[in-house]
Design a protein that fits this description.
Blueprint (H helix, E strand, L loop, with lengths): L5 H36 L8 E6 L9 H8 L2 H4 L2 E6 L7 H6 L5 E4 L3 H6 L4 E6 L6 E6 L14 E4 L4 H9 L8 E4 L5 H5 L4 E5 L3 H7 L4 E4 L12 E5 H6 L1 H20 L1 H12 L5 H15 L11 H13 L27 H15 L2 H37 L4 E5 L5 E4 L1 H7 L20 H12 L1 E10 L5 E13 L2 E10 L1 H23 L3 E6 L4 E5 L3 H5 L3 H6 L2 H4 L2 H14 L9 H4 E7 L5 E12 L5 E10 L1 H25 L1
Parallel strand pairs: 1-2, 1-3, 6-7, 6-8
Antiparallel strand pairs: 3-10, 4-10, 5-8, 5-9, 11-12, 11-15, 13-14, 14-15, 16-17, 16-20, 18-19, 19-20
C-alpha cells in the first residue's frame, strides 16, 4: 500500500485551510474590482459621470486632436467621465494648476522630469509625441550657420525650454552669451527681423513662415543628441492615490481618442474648425497633422508608450548639465497603467497569513530554482526590450530621415504597410488616402515581383537588383533595390530600399553600345591597333587583326616581351624612337617622329614589313607613359614599288636602245 509522505500528512489540514482562505480572498478581491470597474464603465444614464478637467498646453489646434476625438467619439462618456478642456490663460501654469487642484490632468513636455526632481509629486501618465517638435529657427539672412554664431544675437525663447538649453549645453554654447528675449508666442517679431532666432514647434510656426515666404534654417536638438519626448499627459500622485480607477479610465479613453485622431485627421480638422477654434486655417491644421505623424509615429510605436530607459537617458542629460541631482531616481515618476489598486487593506493581515502558508507548502527547492530562473529570464527580457526600444527609436529616426525611399509591403498581395517621407515624395503616396496602395502599381513590369518572391524564398533576400519602376509622375526610372523578408504587424512582409540609378544604367548602356561599335571596327579592320606601356615595356592591348598579319593570336603577342616580339634591328628602331621622344611634349611631336618602318616576325618564320604610325600619351604631369599605334602590312606596297622600279629600269633601257 502506498503511504502519504509524513510532511504532507502532518500539514494537510493547514494546507487545506490556506487554500480555502486563498479562494475566499480571491472571491472578495474579484468582486471588489468588479464593483470599482462598474463605477467607471456604467452607462451615464444610471450613474452620474465624474467631472474631470484637462489643462491644455496651448490654444486649441491639432496638437490636442486626441482629446477632441475622445469627447466626440464618446470614449470619455463610456468611461463614466465628463471632461472639460481648459485653454491656457496669461498666468496659466499646468504644473501648479494640477498640484493645487485647479485641473485634474494637464499636457506638458519633458520639463516635467525637472519638477519631479525638485520635489513636486507629479507622475507622467502617457507620452503622446515620441519625438519633441521643439526646434530653434534662425533667419537665413542673419548670416548664422551654426549654434556658435548665436553669440551676442537676440534669441526669443519660451521658459523653461529645458530641451533647448540642454541642446546649447551639449554644443558648448553658454546661454549667458545670448541676448534672450521673452517669447511672444508669435513668429511676427522673427519675420520682421526684430530677433535673429526663435524657439518653435516644427509642426506649427514653420507653416506661418512658409506661407509668408520666409527663408530660415532649422537647428534640431536631435542633431546634438538631445532626443527628448514631446507632449505628454500628467497628473499628481495625490490624484492617483485618491482615485486610481478614474486616472486609469481617463488615460485609456484619451489614448483611444489619439488612435482615432491619427487615423482620421480630416474628420478631426472639421471638428476643430466647427466646435473649438478657427484661429488656424484648414491648410494650417492639415500641415500640423502631417508633421505630427512623424513625431508620434503611431505605425511603429504604440501611442502613450513610455520607455523607462529613455526617461533615464533624459534624466542623465539633465544631470550631466547640472539641472538635477546625479542620484535622482525615476521611482514613482512613470505611471503603470496595469497596476492593480489595493482595495483590501482591511484584509492585509489575512493576506500575509495566506501568503506565508502558501510559501511554506509550495516553496520546494525545485520550484524555487524554477522561480529564480524565470525571474532572471524576465529581467533579461526587460533589459533586452529596453535595448530594443532604444535601437528602434534610433533606427526609426534614421529611416524617417533617409534621403532614399524605404518601404514595407505585404508579402501576400504587395499592399503598402509602411513608407518613409522620401518614398511618399518619390511615389506620390498620400497619407490621407483611404485606399490601400499596392507596390505592384509602381512596377514597369509586374512580373518582376514573382522573381523577387522566388529569390526571397530561395535566398532570403535580394541585393542590388536593378529594376525599372514608375515614379509619382508616371516616368519610368531604374532603381537599385535591396529586399529582405521580415515580419511586420504579425504578417510576412518585404522590407525594401531603393536608390535611383537611372543615369548609371543609361551611361552603362551607352558605354556598351560604344564598346560594341569599337570592337566591331577593330575586329574587322586589316590594320593592327595596339597600346604599349612604357614603364613595363609590354603591350596592354592589340587588335585581333594581328592574327591575319603575323599568324599569332592577340594573347600570344601580348605575352611576348619586346625582344621576343621584334627582331634586333626593329627593336633598336623602336627604342631609338622612344628615346628621341621621351622628353618631348605633345605639341613638339610631329608626323616625322611617328612614322616608322619596322619588320615584324610571322609565325612561319618570315618577316612582315610594316609601316607603324605611333603617338605618345602623356599623364597629368606631362610625362609620356604609353604609346598608341597602328601597324600596316606594306608587303603589297613594296611589291608594287619594286615592280614600278623594274618597269622604270626597263623603260630606260628601251630609251637607250632607241637612241642608238
Amino acid at each position: 500500500m502506498l503511504r502519504k509522505p509524513a510532511c504532507i500528512a502532518a500539514g494537510s489540514g493547514l494546507f487545506s485551510f490556506a487554500v480555502t482562505a486563498l479562494l475566499l480572498f480571491s472571491f472578495l478581491l474579484n468582486n471588489s474590482v468588479a464593483i470599482a470597474h462598474d463605477v467607471f464603465t456604467s452607462s451615464p444614464r444610471t450613474v452620474a459621470p465624474i467631472k474631470v478637467s484637462l489643462q491644455l498646453k496651448w490654444l486649441h489646434q491639432f496638437q490636442f486632436a486626441g482629446y477632441y476625438a475622445a469627447i466626440s467619439q464618446g470614449y470619455y462618456q463610456d468611461a463614466g467621465l465628463e471632461v472639460s478642456l481648459l485653454e491656457p490663460g496669461d498666468t496659466t501654469d499646468p504644473l501648479h494648476d494640477v498640484l493645487e487642484g485647479r485641473a485634474d490632468f494637464a499636457v506638458t513636455g519633458p520639463d516635467l522630469l525637472l519638477a519631479r526632481a525638485h520635489g513636486h509629486q507629479v507622475v507622467a501618465l502617457a507620452v503622446i509625441f515620441q519625438h519633441s517638435p521643439q526646434v530653434l529657427l534662425v533667419r537665413k539672412d542673419s548670416g548664422i550657420t551654426s549654434l556658435q554664431d548665436l553669440v551676442g544675437r537676440r534669441v526669443m525663447m519660451e521658459q523653461p525650454s529645458a530641451e533647448i538649453k540642454a541642446y546649447f549645453e551639449a554644443e558648448k554654447l553658454p546661454i549667458e552669451q545670448l541676448e534672450v528675449v521673452a517669447h511672444a508666442f508669435s513668429p511676427e517679431a522673427f519675420i520682421k527681423g526684430e530677433v535673429d532666432a526663435i524657439s518653435a514647434y516644427i509642426s506649427d510656426e514653420t507653416f506661418v513662415l512658409n506661407e509668408a515666404g520666409m527663408e530660415y534654417l532649422v537647428f534640431d536638438p536631435k542633431a546634438g543628441g538631445i532626443d527628448f519626448y514631446g507632449d505628454l499627459l500628467f497628473t499628481s500622485q495625490a490624484q492617483i492615490d485618491a482615485a486610481p480607477e478614474k486616472v486609469k479610465a481617463f488615460v485609456e479613453a484619451s489614448l483611444r481618442g489619439w488612435k482615432y485622431a491619427m487615423k482620421h485627421p480630416d474628420e478631426i480638422i472639421d471638428l476643430i474648425l466647427s466646435k473649438y477654434s478657427q484661429r488656424h486655417s484648414r491648410a494650417h491644421l492639415k500641415y500640423e497633422a502631417e508633421q505630427m505623424q512623424h513625431l508620434i509615429i503611431p505605425e511603429i510605436v504604440e501611442i502613450g508608450y513610455m520607455n523607462p530607459g529613455r526617461w533615464q537617458h533624459i534624466a542623465d542629460t539633465f544631470s550631466s548639465q547640472g539641472m538635477i541631482a546625479a542620484d535622482f531616481k525615476l521611482d514613482g515618476f512613470i505611471y503603470d497603467r496595469d497596476q492593480k489598486p489595493d482595495y483590501r487593506k482591511l484584509f492585509l493581515s489575512a493576506v500575509v497569513i495566506i501568503l506565508v502558508a502558501v510559501v511554506i507548502f509550495i516553496a520546494a527547492s525545485f520550484y524555487l530554482r524554477h522561480i529564480r530562473r524565470r525571474h532572471q529570464e524576465m529581467l533579461d527580457k526587460i533589459k533586452a526590450d529596453e535595448r530594443y526600444n532604444n535601437l528602434l527609436s534610433r533606427y526609426q529616426h534614421l529611416i524617417e530621415k533617409a534621403p532614399f525611399p524605404i518601404l514595407i509591403t505585404a508579402l501576400a498581395d504587395g499592399k503598402l504597410l509602411y513608407h518613409n517621407p522620401a518614398a511618399a515624395t518619390f511615389f506620390g503616396i498620400r497619407s490621407d488616402s483611404d485606399n490601400p496602395m499596392l507596390m505592384t502599381d509602381f512596377y514597369a513590369n509586374v512580373g518582376e515581383r514573382q522573381l523577387f518572391l522566388f529569390k526571397i524564398k530561395s535566398e532570403g533576400h535580394v541585393k542590388d537588383y536593378e529594376l525599372q519602376i514608375r515614379n509619382a509622375d508616371g516616368k519610368g526610372i531604374w532603381a537599385s533595390v535591396n529586399v529582405a523578408a521580415v515580419t511586420f504587424d504579425n504578417q510576412s512582409a518585404l522590407f525594401a530600399s531603393l536608390i535611383d540609378v537611372t543615369e548609371r544604367v543609361q551611361a552603362r548602356a551607352e558605354l556598351k553600345e560604344l564598346s560594341d561599335r569599337l570592337r566591331l571596327i577593330t575586329d574587322n579592320m586589316r590594320d593592327v591597333i595596339w597600346l604599349f606601356d612604357l614603364q613595363s615595356q609590354k603591350l596592354l592591348y592589340i587588335s585581333p587583326s594581328v592574327y591575319s598579319m603575323r599568324g599569332y593570336t592577340p594573347e600570344e603577342v601580348m605575352a611576348q616581351a619586346l625582344d621576343e616580339g621584334l627582331p634586333t634591328k626593329a627593336r633598336e628602331t623602336f627604342v631609338a624612337w622612344q628615346n628621341s621622344l621621351h622628353n618631348k611634349t605633345d605639341d613638339e611631336i610631329t608626323s616625322d617622329y611617328s612614322l616608322l618602318r619596322i619588320d615584324q616576325p610571322h609565325r612561319d618564320g618570315s618577316m612582315i614589313p610594316t609601316e607603324v604610325t605611333a603617338r605618345l600619351i602623356f599623364d597629368a604631369n606631362g610625362t609620356a607613359v604609353r604609346v598608341v599605334g597602328v601597324s600596316r602590312d606594306i608587303r603589297e606596297r613594296i611589291r608594287a614599288e619594286n615592280e614600278r622600279h623594274r618597269l622604270e629600269g626597263k623603260l630606260q633601257q628601251l630609251k637607250k636602245t632607241e637612241s642608238l
